[in-house]
Automatic annotation (TrEMBL):
Function: Pyridoxal 5'-phosphate (PLP)-binding protein, which is involved in PLP homeostasis.
Domain Alanine racemase N-terminal: start-end pairs: 14-226
Alphabetical UniProt keywords: Pyridoxal phosphate
CDD domains given in the database record: PLPDE_III_Yggs_like
UniProt modified residues of type N6-(pyridoxal phosphate)lysine: K36
Membership in a protein family: Belongs to the pyridoxal phosphate-binding protein YggS/PROSC family.
Organism ancestry: Bacteria, Pseudomonadati, Pseudomonadota, Gammaproteobacteria, Alkalimonas
Protein name in UniProt: Pyridoxal phosphate homeostasis protein
Cytoplasm in keyword set: no
Amino acid sequence: MNTIAERLQSAYQQIAQQCTKLGSKPADVQLIAVSKTKAVADILSAYQSGQRHFGENYPQELAEKAVALSQQEGICWHFIGPLQSNKTKLVAEHATWCHSLDRLKIASRLSAQRPEQLPPLKVLLQVNISGEASKAGINPDQVLALATEVAALPGLELKGLMAIPAPDAHEPVEPAFARMQQLSLALRAILPQAKELSMGMSDDWPLALKYGATMIRLGTAIFGARNYERHE
Ligand SMILES: *Cc1c(COP(=O)(O)O)cnc(C)c1O
C-alpha cells in the first residue's frame, strides 16, 4: 500500500514524462488532487508533500475543509461538482476556482455573492461533450454565447472550459477530448484569456494531455479508492 506522498510523487513524475513525450512543459499542467470524501488529515499529507490545488464536489464539504485548512498558506480550492443555486454562496466564499459552471443564473449568483475583498472567482464552463452519456454541462454550440455573458460579470473571471468525457458503447473517450481541444481553440479566438482546459481523471489523463488539457483532476490516483458512505 503506497502512501499519499508516494502516489503524489509518482503522479508528478508521470506527468513530467508525459509532457516530455508530448513536447509540452510540465509547468503548464496543473494537477488538481480531488479530495472529495477524503479526510482533512489526508489533504494535509498531500499539502505537506507540496500539493496546493485540491478539488471538491460538494459545496458544504469544500467549505468545511477550506475553513479547517485555512492556515495552510497557498492552499487553493477548486469546486468541480454539480452546483445548485441554493449552494452558490458556499462556493463564492470558499473556492478560488469553479469548474462546473453551466448556466447564466448560477454565474450571476456566484458573481453577486463573491466577497469584495477576494479576487474574482475563476470559472470554467462545463461542456457536455459526450452527448447522451452524461447529463451535466452545456451543449458545445452554446459555449461561445454563455462565455461572452459570463466574461462580463464583475465577480467572475472566465478562464476556460471543463469536461468529463464519458466513454460509452457508441464512442471511446479520445474523440471527445479532441472535440474539446477544438472548442477551446474557438473560445480562445474570441477570449484569449480563457485558455485553460480542465479534462482528464485518474484513468485517462495521459490522453487528455495529448489533446491540450492544462488542468487534470486526479482523485483515486492520489488518495486511493473512495468511500461514499458519508454522502448517501
Ligand atoms: C471524482 C472526480 C474526479 C476524480 O476522479 P478519479 O477517477 O478518482 O481520478 C475528477 N473530476 C470530477 C469532476 C470528479 O467528480
